[in-house]
Amino acid sequence: MAVGAQVPDPGDVLPVDVGGQPLVLVRDKAGEISGFHNVCSHRGVLLVTEPMKRQAGLRCPYHSWTYGHDGKLLRTPFVGGPDRHECPAIDKSKLGLRPVRTAKWLDFVFVDLSGVAEALEEVMAPLTARWSKYDFSRLSYGFGKSFSLRANWKLAMENYLESYHLPWVHPELNRVSPLDIHGQIDVAPYIFGQVTANYRPGGIGGRQLPAFPDLDETSDRCGEYPVVYPNLMLGVQRDHLFGIIVRPDGQGRTVEDLHIYFADETALETDYAEIRDQLLEGWVEVFMEDIDVVERMQKGRASSAFDGGVLTPYHDGPTRRFMALVERSVAPRH
Q1: Tell me, which fold does domain 136-330 have in CATH?
Q2: pLDDT tens digit sequence for 10-33
Q3: Residue ranges of the chain that CATH labels 3.90.380.10
Q4: Residue 81 has what DSSP assignment?
């Protein structure tokens, strides 16, 4: 997964790894984002290893075979010998990049390696309906940051799904949004998580960030924090939306990519810079606080004394549900 803000302009390309498969996302001249396997058809070399801006095409560094934004193989220099750029044995029309099914919800780009998953629009429809009160057409990208964890990605997801740890891990957050006003939400089979009845926006000198217009009193005060199984954490509040893409990075390692969007582009103006920084610093502090306990879970579970632990009936329903989805996903199919 990725976000469109990472490839904002035509010709921008972004390498991503999904399920151990190296892929590349490309924004074409029409502004659409497409996904391809990030491998040259000639000798299997990775085409892209770093994000790149405004590329005319994707050129293999090995023998300079070049592909268009649509994945078609365009150029094969010297493929037939010196000064011969065509070869009867090489049919370029059959050697384009292999496409990967992609779809976008808001600015979040989803990848379907199987090619047969339910349409993203249908999967996300319950959350789209629930959040219809927020005018997401006004969203403006504000900030991105990555966090590295020495822990399995599933532990990061499980931590996000419960608020039981707030008083001890997030004492400052718990002061303004205490444990006793947190609840759980069930949006759809793959979308569920936490909600707080008191989101308190920051501000300086009586000024606050622009909010989504026409919110009812409940939406103006609450924050909702569902996960989209398997690896997207979401949060929506009166003045911003965030998403955290949780990426496995080898055995016992995880990268969390945080992306924050503001409720209106005016929030990006200079006058709001100090308030923006306050909000961003607050979330970074919260997510950094989580890293220590998640890494401690990873280390603790190596103990022979750990027998699987205990799930509490009140707090751990979403965690139990996440575990069941993981089990179903990895169970052998007959």
Answers
A1: Naphthalene 1,2-dioxygenase Alpha Subunit; Chain A, domain 1 (3.90.380)
A2: 999 999 999 889 999 999 999 999
A3: 136-330
A4: B
Question: What class is the 2-104 domain?
Answer: mainly beta
Direct distance between the N- and C-terminal alpha carbons of the chain, in angstroms, rounded to an integer: 29
Structure tokens belonging to residue 58? 């994707």
- Cβ proximity of 190 and 232 under 8 Å: no
Phi-psi region of 318 (alpha: psi -120 to 50; beta: other; left: phi over 0): alpha
Q: How confident is the model at residue 334, as a pLDDT?
A: 52
Residue from 44, 45, 46 nearest 13 by CA: 46
Mean pLDDT for the chain overall: 95
Using one digit for the tens of pLDDT, what is the confidence trace for 235-288? Answer: 999 999 999 999 999 889 999 999 999 999 999 999 999 999 999 999 999 999
Evaluate whether 245 touches 257 at the Cβ level (below 8 Å). yes
Closest among 214, 180, 208, 217 to 196, alpha carbons compared: 180
Q: Which two tokens stand for residue 185?
A: 């939400």
Residue 22 pairs with which residues in a beta bridge? 17
Tell me the two tokens of residue 147: 């966090």
Per-residue b or e along 282-295, where b marks 16 or more CB atoms closer than 10 Å to that residue's CB: ebeeebebbbebbb
Helix axes 273-300, 153-160, angle to 10 degrees: 120
pTM given for the model: 0.94
Handedness of CA 30, 32, 36, 38 (dihedral sign): positive
Alpha helices in the chain (DSSP H): 120-130, 153-160, 166-169, 171-176, 217-221, 273-300, 317-330
φ/ψ of 121, rounded to 5, equals -55, -40
- Indicate where the chain has its CATH 2.102.10.10 domain(s): 2-104
